[in-house]
Hints:
The structure is a homodimer.
Chain A: H1 6-32, H2 37-48, H3 53-56, H4 58-64, H5 70-93, H6 96-127, H7 140-152, H8 156-165, H9 172-198, H10 206-241, H11 246-265, H12 270-282, H13 289-311, H14 323-347, H15 352-362, H16 367-378, H17 384-409, H18 417-420, E1 426-427, H19 435-449, H20 455-468, E2 472-474, E3 477-478, E4 481-484, E5 491-501, E6 511-520, H21 524-537, H22 542-548, H23 553-562
Parallel strand pairs in A: 1-5, 3-6, 4-6
Antiparallel strand pairs in A: 2-3, 5-6
Helix pairs in contact in A: 1-2, 1-5, 1-13, 2-13, 5-8, 5-12, 5-13, 6-7, 6-9, 6-14, 7-9, 8-9, 9-10, 9-15, 10-11, 10-12, 11-12, 14-15, 14-17, 15-17, 16-17, 19-20
Amino acid sequence: MENLASSNITVMFLSLGVLLFVARFLGEFAQRFHQPAVLGELTAGILLGPTILGSLAPDLSAFLFPVHGLNVIALNTITTLAIALFLLVAGMEVDLSTVWRQGRIGFKVGITSIVIPFSIALIAALVVPEALGRHVGADPMIFALFLAIAMSISALPVIAKTLMDMNLYRSDLGMVVVSAAMFNDLIGWIVFAVLLGLIGQPSGTGNHIMMTIALTLAFTGGMLTIGRFLVHKVLPFVQAYTRWPGGELSFALILGMFGAAFTEWIGIHAIFGAFIVGVAVGDSSHLREHSRVIIANFVSFIFAPVFFASIGLKVNFLTHFDLPLVLSLLFIACACKLAGGTIGARWGGMPIREAWAIGFAMNSRGAMEIILGMIALQAGIIREQLFVALVVVAIVTSMMSGPSMRLLLQTEKKWRLRNILSSKLFLRELKATSRREAIHEMTAAAGGAIEGLDAQALETSVWKREKTLSTGIGNGVALPHARIDGLRESLVVVGISATGIDFDSPDGKPANVIFLMLTPGNEPGVQLEIASEIAKLFRDPRMTDRVLSTKRFTDFLALICAGI
Amino acid sequence: MENLASSNITVMFLSLGVLLFVARFLGEFAQRFHQPAVLGELTAGILLGPTILGSLAPDLSAFLFPVHGLNVIALNTITTLAIALFLLVAGMEVDLSTVWRQGRIGFKVGITSIVIPFSIALIAALVVPEALGRHVGADPMIFALFLAIAMSISALPVIAKTLMDMNLYRSDLGMVVVSAAMFNDLIGWIVFAVLLGLIGQPSGTGNHIMMTIALTLAFTGGMLTIGRFLVHKVLPFVQAYTRWPGGELSFALILGMFGAAFTEWIGIHAIFGAFIVGVAVGDSSHLREHSRVIIANFVSFIFAPVFFASIGLKVNFLTHFDLPLVLSLLFIACACKLAGGTIGARWGGMPIREAWAIGFAMNSRGAMEIILGMIALQAGIIREQLFVALVVVAIVTSMMSGPSMRLLLQTEKKWRLRNILSSKLFLRELKATSRREAIHEMTAAAGGAIEGLDAQALETSVWKREKTLSTGIGNGVALPHARIDGLRESLVVVGISATGIDFDSPDGKPANVIFLMLTPGNEPGVQLEIASEIAKLFRDPRMTDRVLSTKRFTDFLALICAGI
């Protein structure tokens, strides 16, 4: 029992590989449909956990994700590390100046999204405790307090991941939500410590509770003022006197570990400490973009998916599933948290749609609720059905928030060249030898591939435009284009010519890579966006050579996505 | 026992933070003295482990690094993951074309560095088994075989880390060593599996052994041919159809996990699979530098130090320390492995000094020897004294290899601007308003700071050079210089002028940052090296503005080290 045996190590790497693969795959899949990746990652856990894989192939499931023995500890270690690192990154991405600016609204949202759910859930739990899953014999007041807290806690990790996935994290709205969630967590974890005291957990004597509250506030206040100042002062020394970028990377990670250890020690969760340290480190203007990119990419694409997928591994959602209980809890949870978040945002002066979006963001629950539920279950306060219902509520509310926000905010699909390129509009070997012929060949391809497009009319428009001012931009690239009335979606036809075609470029070189851009008449800005993305990609002259060496559309697309 | 409690989580983050901090600190310290960082990282483990911290502060040691309970598993999980990830990176850095070119020598070194230690140790163990730590009652032949294998196994992780730390990894010599170590490991692990069979470990029946050998060879051969081909084919799809760079990062990591799981399952160590997958992935020209940098930096600066430091945590080197046994084992270990490696390299035609360097590199032992020792101890084949001696030999040989190679190869200190800048030669506010005055002020500073330099003579030489062709290079930078006969070390004086001084730059701008370069007369190349590093740093015009905004030498040095 002292150490991992070879069989444990095999299972550990295998389960990690499977978990990461399915989580990343479904995460990418979710993003194809413009949903946050975390939706797919949570789903991966449900698929691989007891609910689906455990029912369909119990032997495989027991082998990959055993519920007893050392592999439980191993996976738990990795996910604990993963979530702390993710919160460190989330903290590093916080833009404190926006938080100060939006903090007033964040504070209001934080207050209402605790007070309203807490009051409503407390009353409901006192009025109908049995229907809400109180364990026979549990103290009614303690049960009611537990439920009230469970309904008021938010999930900073899920909220942060959803906002990042949607490119909203550093927006004004994002920072309102993050500051509200931070405030919410701060209060939530303190009240949580009080409740632990009431239900007689070891750490929970009266003195301990006061101590926890005092230390939490001191840590948060200290890190965001003196800590932040010290980090800013020390970073140049780290950069100057250690190997770059190793010193800076280790500095951030080591501080994060210590922060996590400290907050876990004082009785609130490790992730809170990692987050606050992240805020302090990320705020320093001395922190280099290079280090930020290394930490953020490694953590968000490797550790975070493993953590979010691991949530679904914990419970079988089918056994102990009590539909009426789940539905009523879900209703209470959503109603009061949505009300709380939205009312707070309106109070803070946000427009109605954004206020609702904030409500949905705050409605996500996650790990804390599940941990709380587990403790209450062990202490005999709640029935197993309620525990399952709590987990279901955590996952359903987390999954709801992204799609709802998208609907409410009508966030534009982030415009990227890669999304409109198509193998049907990719001409690997142009036959044309002149501008005129190239335009003819490429417009004909567009007309042939897309129904309802008149190739002749396209050619006339593009040529008319080309004649006024030629569209060679240098480095072997040309961007002939036209705005087409009635066109619904932008099109880009790509033509490649090994010999090159004269497009009268400023650098005198013939064009080897020709992008024909056809954009809707009523969206004048799109053309410029496409053109500037292409110009940026081909700023490095080696890019044209690399394009000429590709054989297939996929290779070409890989170059556009990943660069040289 | 089912899961990590809050106290476990506190200890986990705290011990990780402490381990990483001390390892990185001593690693940086080692590099100050031109030694590989791994030397400092190994020392960190001895300091924090039972040998030092455990003796001086047993309570603190038992709290931070407990030897029982769940934290043992937690730390073991993290170090197992860490070493597999590090071997993945080491594999990715292998330059297969050099391996093919140097493979013939590598193969010879691989053969001799197994056969010679194996034979000598086998004979010694048969002749004087008691003196070498045979357990009373253990089969003499099995004991002899065990010792022979223990003496012939190399440590690919330590070797790779040492070579990387010394910037020798991708050199011809580096690739000879890596291919020899790979071959050595391949054989070593197979023989290891045979030995496990002989001493009756569960996995070791006759069929199992044949199976292990067959699967190991099939895996290695398959991954380096078909696997490599498939990775190369699939990578463009990953880049084209997943979010960049997340898809590529996950792809490499997921394959690495599966490789590790597979080789662990077939009975050899997980790290071998991770390494081979790394070679297959890293060889594809489609793999982007950006992903490589993210994985390599995060793993080498965070995970690798934690792993190497954790080695020293395992044993108290003072109890069960049997000096005659340690010395004789160390003698046998070094003598036969050095002979093996060096003879192989000479046989392959390497020059004598490089052959010895290869011998020292192959002489490193590490985790495998310790694992082997642990199994033999549990099986009652060896005495505890021998186990401690094996660990000492592993650490001492690992620590010897870097410094010995440095002495033998006389590797030049990697020349970097940061190493010759000094706060004494940093003039934050130049008073000068003309070229002549600036050169006077800066040469005077050099003369004042360095004993034996004649400021007047310096000024004359620099000004003579400056008059023939002015040294403004544009972007607000000027590089006045002179070669000084009798100067022992290159000097760079930095002068900053907020208003700027006319140095007749090609872009017409005055110089705000002036580097006065004084280099030894007998090293004509150095001046050019310094100049080109400065030109590269200031290619981005914002660099000059950033330098002007610094207040202290440290901030300036941080900019030089870490860039904007």
